[in-house]
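Minutes, project check-in
Item: structure for the 47-residue chain
Input as provided by the requester:
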Amino acid sequence: MEIDDFPSYIIEEIKNTWQNWNSPRLSINSLYLDEIEEINLDNIQEG
């Protein structure tokens, strides 16, 4: 399967995700902490 076989919106999503993950303004730790914070908020709302 070639990259061109995917619909354009999926290619755009992959491109955006790649750029976000490789952006110098974001670190792995900040992404991880944001994810933990989101999980904690979900748990508080459910609890």
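Outcome recorded: The chain has one domain: 3-46.
No further action items on this chain.
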